[in-house]
Automatic annotation (TrEMBL):
It comes from Pedobacter helvus. Belongs to the Rv0495c family. Pfam families: DUF3109 (PF11307). This is DUF3109 family protein. InterPro entries: Rv0495c (IPR021458).
């Protein structure tokens, strides 16, 4: 584990390569799974606020799910997540373009409709965070549906932490990321 401020990072984030390859996976990570995307408590209010602004970008079945379940839900483990269509299918916030799953929130962000890109757990994927009272642990979530991202990352020689530089800075700040790079360089 690598320690940076109040976080511990698994070495796989440095040693494994990863670059999303939407042309291959078609954004299946927003469709597969047993629950919606994990949310931070502060993101619940953001989703409530932006929903009216992004509703027109959502698929009808996504709107129906949000209208039925709410802009966020508690999953079977009691964790806050995005709602899913029919309670277990794709995230209610997805839209489909040319056979590729896209995030309607991110689309609204790119169009300047909202100033929030998407839930941080989505932006950070394949990193998953486990929170403890005194620190957070960042792990590499291995999922078979991301095999094309792993091979594409190896081809391009891009480690997970470099692929996720922007969301890591969004979550922890530029100083944190610089400290991470310094730690990696001093351990090389």
């Amino acid at each position: 584990m690598i320690e940076v401020q109040s976080t511990l990072l698994h070495e796989d984030l440095i040693n494994e390569d990863f670059v999303c390859n939407l042309s291959k996976c078609k954004g299946i990570c927003c469709v597969e799974g047993d629950a919606g995307a994990p949310l931070e408590q502060s993101e619940k209010a953001i989703l409530e606020e932006i929903y009216p602004k992004i509703k027109h970008l959502l698929a009808p079945k996504g709107i129906a799910a949000i209208e039925e379940y709410g802009t966020s839900v508690l999953d079977l483990d009691g964790d806050l997540t995005t709602p899913c269509v029919d309670g277990h299918k794709e995230c209610a916030y997805v839209t489909f373009e040319n056979g590729i799953t896209k995030c309607a929130i991110e689309k609204a962000y790119e169009q300047g409709i909202v100033d929030w890109k998407k839930p941080i757990s989505c932006h950070l994927y394949p990193i998953r965070i486990t929170k403890y009272p005194e620190f957070e642990v960042l792990n590499y979530d291995r999922w078979h549906i991301c095999k094309d991202a792993c091979s594409f990352g190896r081809e391009l020689k891009v480690p997970v932490y470099k692929f996720l530089k922007d969301p890591l800075i969004r979550k922890y700040g530029a100083d944190w990321y610089t400290e991470l790079e310094d730690n990696i360089a001093s351990n090389s």
